[in-house]
Amino acid sequence: MELIVTVLMFIGGGLLLNTRSRLSRTEHRLLLVENELRRRIAAEAQPVPRETPATPPPSQSAPEPAAPVPAAPLPPREARVTVPVVIKTAPEPEPQAPAPVLHQQTPKPAPVKTGPAFNFEDLFGRKLPIWAGGITLAIAGVLIVKYAIDAGFFGRIFTPGVQAICGVLFGLGLIGGAEWAWRKRDVVADPRVAQALSGAGISTLYAALLVAHSLYGLIGPMTAFAGLALVTGGALWLSLRHGMPSALLGLAGGLAAPALTMGLDANVPLLAAYLGFTIAGLAGVARVQRWPWLAMIALVGGAGWSLWLIIAGKAFALIGALSVFGFVALLALLIPLFVFTENTQRITRAISAIIGAAQLGLLVALGGFQPLHWALFALLASAGQFLAWREKLLDLSIIPTTSAVLSFILLMVWDTMSMAMLLTIALVLAAIHAGPLLARLWQTPATLQRAVELSAIALSAPILALRHVNYPDDAETTLASLGGAALVFASAALGWNCVDRRNDKRFATLIATGGLLITAAIWCGLPIWQAPVGVMALACALLVFAPRTGDHRIEPVAASFGGLSVLMLLATTMPDRSMELAALFGDSANPFNTQSLLRWSGTALGAIVFALLAQTRAVRWGAQAAATLLTYGTLAQVLRPIALPLAAPLGLVALALHQRKAGVRPLLVPGALLLTLIAGWAFLPVMHWLDFATRSLGGVPITLDRAELAPLALLRRLAAPALLIAGAWWLLRDKASRAVRITLVVTGAVLGGIALHSFYRHGFAALIGTDFVQYGLAQRLVWAAALLGSAALLHNRNATTAAIALTTAAALHTAWYSLMLHNPLWSAQAVGALPLLNLLAPLFVLLPLCLLLLERTPGLSATIAAKLKQPVLMAMVIGFTWATLRQAFHGSLLVTPGLSDSEDIARSLLGIALAIGFLLWGIRQKLHNWRIVSLVLMLAAVAKVFVLDAAGLEGLLRIASFVALGFSLIGIGWLYSRQLRNTSG
Prior knowledge:
This protein has helices spanning 2-44, 120-151, 160-183, 185-188, 191-214, 221-242, 244-261, 268-289, 292-311, 318-339, 345-366, 371-390, 398-413, 419-440, 448-468, 475-494, 506-525, 531-549, 554-571, 579-584, 594-613, 617-636, 647-662, 668-696, 711-731, 738-767, 772-796, 800-821, 840-855, 860-890, 901-925, 928-952, 955-984. It is an all-alpha fold.
């Protein structure tokens, strides 16, 4: 395989080289042709001066000078061989572009440098080592001091005072070196040296001052505080002089100094003060130098320290809690308030305040929900509210929102408390968060968020009550729900005279929230079976109240509570009242219950009020649907199961009568739902009937042995509803639209047709019998004849559509069931013992009669019937004569086995007689297809006589058969010759 591949590669390479050589030679020839064309064009062209006259100014009209006639440009190289060259001269040739100069090289533009190239040596050899050296020096200064403390090295010589002084001197020396490097920057030639030294010096001074105070007590708190403030000021001054690296290194050293010197057991107040001054100084540098990222890093570091103090349990005592609170307030509110610029102040202030509130919330939770911690949390929440109120242009509403959410979470997880303490803390926090919202709710510009937050605060009251009480129906939950409802309703009342309250969703939001809270109070305060009625009463009150508000949103809110009441009605069905839902389907023997009746009737009455008073189309339609279903449900609680299926049909008739008497537009939604209820009751009978009918298509006889298809069930569920639907159609025949009338007709026809067919089957079985072999054909023929007779009556009454439908049904029923599936010629079906006076004539006459009736109706059905009439009639004549002959020899059952010689000869004679009859009829009626079928029958008879009959006959019978056949053939030939002669003449 490898050898074959190698050979193929060599062959391909040779072909490619040959092709390349041929292309090179072709290119050389094209170049010669190009040069020759240029030479000829240059020889034919007239010489013209090369000077170009000056262009006249736009205001002057000067004649255009004669343009030079350069050599004509050649077409592209790909088209130069195929395009013929035509040399044409003109007195005044049009100006053309000068010919391109061959072999002229265009200089390439120099590459443009888009950005500074990466210099590995400059970055890793000059910049990074200096910065790393500064950080190293800062850490070294701290570690030297710590090492001396831990190991006691040179303890006698380097006393604590000497060590602290050496640390300060070392830091000052570093800063002095930075100052010297800054002043001698022309000698140093790199500003990063001064930046690294200054940052290291600042970090060393921080560590030396903290060690002198915390470990050795060489200086008091005020002295240490002053020293830290002085170092922070120095860091600010040096950062302004030396730029970003000094500030960054100062940040790293300042935040790391407590951990590297004192560990994690530092004094909380002093540590908080130190970190506060450090972060404040760095934030000041960030503000002056416009480095918001520096302030963000400082705040993140401070937040990490405060979080550790809370988690480690160092902020639970009084002094620790106050220190941490001051530090968190500094980070969350004060520093972001004065540091960040306009581009970043909104998001940074919001994030800082949220983190601060979260930390104090964690302090409350981990500290055991102490009153002091709650007070600090409430104080920070108040400060956040003040900040959001003060900075109106920045929209810092996220700060109080987050504080409110944290308040709710803390109250939810609070377990060990008294109800008095819970109520006090909850009211204080609610006042802090709801007061500013209530004060600014209806101010401009309109803000939906305030209404949503106020609604959330009101909704939290029953939720907290449910969390901290035993049962949801206690008085505490009810009172909490009513209190929250009073809050939002009072808030909505304050905006009643607000001019623009109709233009936004604030008022509707408050009303909806109040409705939810009233619903909660109803659920908790009333017996559960009364809750749906109470909520529906609330919905009706809101519906009546809606027009007075002038707010189109209130009506959908009221409709929502109406829908909620319906859901509550279905959801609050208790086990001892389980018959409520069972009664809807007629499955309860004794459904009556006073409470159930009151629940359903009250809810239905509210839905009727909505249907009558609602102004919005969607609400009105929904109310009509609810009123229809709820009224049916109310009747289901009273009526017996035997009469319940008639409720929907009677309601449909009443609806139609109302529309006819009142002259109103048809109520489509109630009508559709009533038809749906009727269909629901008819579902099982129709499905069982369809099951039997589907199986009958395969030859299984219909038995109707189901309880849903019993006569009484058919009367209640199918027949009576169909008659009532017909009555509704009669009342609306000239009032409703065509679609409504068609829907009623189709529904009534389907139900009535199934009921009528089932009643017929039950009645036939009762009167005649159920033996399918003896009475199956008669039962089918009577049903088909009834359909055809009904169609004829409707046709005479000009009900063309119904007549076509019934005729088609009769034709299909006869064709499939009686002529194909259960034809007596091959299926055991009794036709009657008497010759000719039996069921064969009706069997083979029904289908042609159906086609004749269809032919009398205009439209497509008449065209189809006209095309099918003659073939069907011929088939029916052949089938009838054949079946009659069979009945004459075998009696009622045509499938009885056996074939006598006489019957066999009679078949041959019958074939000849049919052929002669078809021919005579075709000649008389001038029907060509009848003559063709006549020939086919004759040929079949001749073939049968010669092939079958003659072989089995002897003597006179054989002679007689041949004589009859001969005369028949002669007669047919004579008739055909005469017919053809008459036609040609």
